[in-house]
Structures are given as structure tokens and as C-alpha cells.
Amino acid sequence: GIDASIRQVDSTQYEARQSNFDFDFNLFRSSIGATPTVDGLENLYHSRMAKTPGTRNYPGTESKAIDALIEAA
């Protein structure tokens, strides 16, 4: 099995940790709207944003295939 623990933090600490990728697991949801923009998709999924503090690529997605799809949009 997996030994896991949950740590509850205040909203300021949560935002700081999330922005700096300082977590092992994080639940979040995101809406890109009915007509997503290239900028929005890049911020969420492009490899360039994988380890860039302040972006929303929280899972650290790095994929040449995904990058190509975004760039073709």
C-alpha cells in the first residue's frame, strides 16, 4: 500500500506552494472556456511552462506531441 498524509494549509501558503510546484500531489480544476486561446493552452500544457513558477502547468506536462498540437491551433 501507499502511506499518505494530508496537510491542510491556509490559502496564502497554498497559492505560494502551487505557484512554485512545491507539492507531491494536488487536486485542481481548470476551465479554458468554449473557445480556448493558444495562450491559455500554452499556459496550461506547453513544455515551456512545465517548471515556470506562476504558470498553471501544475502537473509539469512536457510533451512534444502536445506542444505541436498547441502550436498548430
Secondary structure elements and pairings:
Blueprint: H1 11-19, H2 38-45, H3 64-72
Helix pairs in contact: 2-3
Would you tell me the overall average pLDDT?
87
* Global morphology: elongated
- The secondary-structure class comes to mainly alpha
Q: Give the terminus-to-terminus CA distance.
A: 42 Å
Quick one: how many beta strands? 0
Order of helices and strands: HHH
Continuous helix count? 3
Percent range of helical residues = 25-40%
Strand content: under 5%
The major sheet is characterized as:
none
Uncertain segments: none
The gyration radius over C-alpha positions equals 14 Å
Structure description:
- The protein has 73 residues and is mainly α.
- The chain has a domain at 32-73.
- It has helices at residues 11-19, 38-45, 64-72.
- Helix 2 (38-45) runs antiparallel to helix 3 (64-72).
- The longest helix is centred in the N-terminal third of the chain and has 9 residues, at 11-19.
- It is elongated.
